Amino acid sequence: MRMTIFNMPVIRTLAHWLALFILKILGWKITGKRPEIKKYVMIAAPHTSNWDFFYGLLMNLYFKNEVYWMGKKQIFRMPFGAIMKWFGGLPVDRSRTNNLVQSVIDEFNKTESLIVVVPPEGSRSKVHEWKTGFYFIASGAGVPILLGFLDYHKKEGGYGPLFYTTGDRDNDMIKIKEFYKEIKGKFDN
């Protein structure tokens, strides 16, 4: 893909130690471990605050993951657009259908290593149903879903288990959401 903070060797190492320091100072505990596989979709839930980006970035810097994340195109405007892309951002135009799922599947098929982070709510606002694009990306690319989380109540973040889709979306979504049942976002949506 392109050059980001996650794939620049010296900066990546410095960022790892800086992220660890900041998380410790702020009282956050890091749990789970980075999967040994090179391709997966990571969901980041619950997504209730702009602070999720900050803590999620720190967590991924700590784990030395080379991640790319999807965000609405509006956050990529000047003057921050280049910085957001350097942090692994991929702009998404949510106002029109543009076969984003297939585009990401194609990227998975073209590369040896790819981690794409998707907030399943698709918004910081209260939602009753998660968007399922992450599920179809993982299914279509034949990669697992890593259950990433930030629990503001416990001040704990990291990785849960890998989840392999079965093709039964409704049942799989119930199982995925079960993992997040007790995890609290910054705001109670």
Topology:
Layout: H1 9-25, E1 29-31, E2 39-45, H2 51-63, E3 67-72, H3 81-86, E4 89-92, H4 100-110, E5 114-118, H5 133-141, E6 145-151, E7 156-163, H6 169-179
Parallel strand pairs: 1-7, 2-5, 2-6, 3-4, 3-5
Antiparallel strand pairs: 6-7
Q: What features would you describe in this structure?
A:
The chain has 189 residues and is α/β, with parallel strands linked by helices. It has one domain. Helices cover 35% and strands 21% of the residues. It is built from six helices and seven strands. Helix 4 packs parallel to helix 5. It starts with 8 loop residues before the first helix and ends in a 10-residue tail after the last helix.
**Count of structural domains:** 1
* Major sheet strand order: 1-7-6-2-5-3-4
Whole-number average pLDDT? 88
Instruction: Tell me the Rg in angstroms.
Output: 16 Å
User: What is the string of SSEs from the N terminus onward?
Assistant: HEEHEHEHEHEEH
Terminal CA distance reads 34 Å
Question: How many helices?
Answer: 6
Q: List low-confidence stretches.
A: none
Characterize the largest beta sheet: strand count, sense, and whether it forms a barrel.
7 strands, mixed
Assess the beta-strand content as a share of residues: 15-25%
Q: Would you report the number of β strands?
A: 7
Shape: globular
Helix vs. strand class: alpha/beta
Q: Helix content range of the residues, please?
A: 25-40%
Would you summarize the structure shown here?
The chain has 189 residues and is of the alpha/beta class.
